[in-house]
């Protein structure tokens, strides 16, 4: 006959057990902390920023802890604005628009990541992986 008895039988813990309550509370606290941390990171690095073809930030510079000087382009014209925590001031309209001096290979992390994932950023790594794959067979 087949005997299926186990000496170490795991019973579910009840909520009356103090260690179970503490464990649940700490897990909930950890999840809430991760949510707030992700919200802070998204706000800090302006992840939710959606570009528009009518309004574009050309350049930006921090002037203090909560102050910025920005050049925005609206309707083909560029304007210099000062941004603080409480207001936005128009400082000047630029007579000569700033040019975009970015190289053809952009420094944008999203673009570089997409190129890397496609294997186009580091062609030597892609060819090395292909060679390694053919050697394994």
Automatic annotation (TrEMBL):
Top-level taxonomic group: Bacteria
Keyword Secreted: no
Chief subcellular location: membrane
Membrane spanning stretches: 20-41
Keywords: Bacterial flagellum, Cell membrane, Cell projection, Cilium, Flagellum, Membrane, Transmembrane, Transmembrane helix
Pfam families: FliO
GO CC entries: bacterial-type flagellum basal body; plasma membrane
GO biological process per UniProt: bacterial-type flagellum organization
Flavoprotein recorded as keyword: no
InterPro entries for this protein: Flagellar_biosynth_FliO (IPR022781), FliO/MopB (IPR052205)
Similarity comment: family membership: Belongs to the FliO/MopB family.
PANTHER family: FLAGELLAR PROTEIN FLIO
Protein name per UniProt: Flagellar protein
Organism, scientific name: Paraglaciecola hydrolytica
Lineage, broadest ranks: Bacteria, Pseudomonadati, Pseudomonadota, Gammaproteobacteria, Alteromonadales
């Amino acid at each position: 006959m087949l005997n299926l008895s186990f000496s170490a039988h795991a019973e579910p813990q009840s909520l009356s057990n103090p260690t179970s309550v503490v464990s649940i509370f700490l897990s909930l606290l950890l999840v809430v902390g991760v949510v707030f941390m992700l919200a802070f990171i998204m706000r800090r690095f302006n992840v939710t920023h959606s570009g528009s073809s009518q309004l574009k930030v050309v350049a930006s510079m921090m002037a203090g802890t909560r102050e910025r000087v920005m050049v925005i382009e609206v309707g083909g014209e560029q304007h210099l604005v000062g941004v603080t925590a409480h207001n936005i001031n128009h400082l000047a309209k630029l007579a000569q628009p700033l040019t975009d001096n970015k190289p053809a290979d952009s420094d944008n992390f999203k673009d570089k990541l997409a190129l890397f994932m496609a294997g186009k950023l580091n062609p030597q790594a892609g060819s090395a992986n292909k060679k390694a794959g053919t050697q394994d067979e």
